[in-house]
Design goal:
The chain is of the alpha/beta class. The chain folds into two domains: about 5-65, no CATH class; about 70-300, TIM Barrel (Alpha-Beta Barrel), CATH 3.20.20. The chain is about 55% helix and about 15% strand. It is built from twelve helices and eight strands. The protein has helices spanning about 5-10, 10-35, 40-65, 85-90, 110-120, 130-145, 160-165, 165-180, 190-200, 220-235, 260-270, 285-300, and strands at about 70-80, 100-105, 125-130, 150, 185, 205-210, 240-250, 275-280. An eight-stranded parallel β-barrel has the order 1-2-3-4-5-6-7-8, surrounded by eight helices. Strand 2, helix 5 (about 110-120) and strand 3 (about 125-130) form a beta-alpha-beta unit. The longest helix is centred in the first third of the chain and has 28 residues, at about 40-65. The radius of gyration is 26 Å and the shape is globular. The chain starts with a helix and ends with a helix.
């Protein structure tokens, strides 16, 4: 096989140049030795069509590879939902590339049996709090318990006013406390805070979780467009950060779709732009959670 094909495959521009020289020399030799006129335009056209076809095929393979690349699942572990029920849903459908977040809210204490269960799921685990002061107070303990990350779920009306008065400063305070203990920091602000402050929060985060679930009711296009817009801003602010997105069994259906299909379609619409997914759920819809987690594990993990 002529050597130029090696370069065309590995180095398309260099290979193309080498091939053009090869064609030119071959035509020159042929004309000189055999006095045969060759339609150079036709040869060049055929060659360019071949290169174009090869380029399109290569780009198509690259795009397919990106869209189907392995994604992580971020398991939400709630202390007010049955521990074993959650373990039975998540455990068989997770791997070492996935994450777990054990949620603390409304002044709850970390429960020992839930700590053990969350840490025993595949992949690294973290603890989610709703105030920066809780993170400052608990970061050392979270580290000593063997967790790898802390999450700050900053919500207007749920988080303290001291945090809501300056969301960016609150996120930085929490991130500094986490990083001081060698923990990763996941920022999970409300959708409104992501829209307004996401790019300012992103530089402090190792992971960013976009709460776009309220847009499910508006349809797949609304969900997709919002997530894509925010991801572009977040990536510009922190290109090294992993970004996940949220859907919810507690939100309404997209027009004309079942709840499960709504979750699937929303996720599918953004998986070429995000790194992972999490599901907000309640204690009365575990069968729906199970169906989604099984589907996601089969298709994306």
């Amino acid at each position: 096989m002529p050597y130029f094909w090696y370069y065309i495959v590995l180095y398309p521009l260099l290979g193309t140049a080498i091939y053009m020289v090869y064609i030119g020399n071959s035509l020159h030799s042929t004309e000189k030795m055999q006095k045969i006129k060759v339609d150079r335009t036709k040869v060049a056209s055929i060659f360019l069509m071949a290169v174009l076809s090869l380029s399109v095929a290569t780009l198509g393979m690259a795009a397919a590879g990106t869209a189907n690349a392995q994604k992580f699942f971020l398991a939400l572990f709630l202390q007010y939902v049955g521990r074993d029920a959650q373990v039975n849903i998540y455990g068989p459908n997770m791997s070492s590339e996935d994450f777990t977040r054990l949620r603390v809210q409304n002044g709850d204490q970390l429960k020992s049996d839930y700590i053990t269960a969350a840490k025993n799921l595949p992949g690294p685990a973290g603890v989610a709090f709703m105030s920066s002061s809780e993170i400052v107070e608990n970061a050392a303990r979270v580290k000593s318990l063997g967790f790898q990350a802390i999450e700050f779920n900053l919500e207007s009306g749920l988080s303290p006013s001291s945090d809501n008065n300056n969301p960016v400063a609150a996120m930085k305070k929490a991130a500094d406390a986490a990083h001081a203990q060698g923990l990763k920091f996941r920022a999970t602000p409300s959708k409104a805070y992501t829209t307004q402050y996401g790019a300012q929060i992103a530089p402090y985060a190792d992971y960013y979780h976009i709460q776009a679930q309220s847009l499910q009711d508006n349809g797949i296009t609304a969900y997709r467009d919002y997530v894509r817009t925010q991801v572009a801003k977040l990536e510009k602010a922190n290109p090294d950060m992993l970004i996940s997105v949220q859907v919810s069994t507690q939100q309404g259906n997209a027009p004309g779709l079942s709840k499960l299909d709504t979750l699937k379609r929303c996720v599918d619409s953004v998986m070429d732009r995000v790194d992972g997914v999490s599901v907000w759920f309640g204690g009365d819809d575990l069968s729906l959670l199970r169906s989604f987690v099984q589907w996601y594990n089969t298709k994306w993990s």
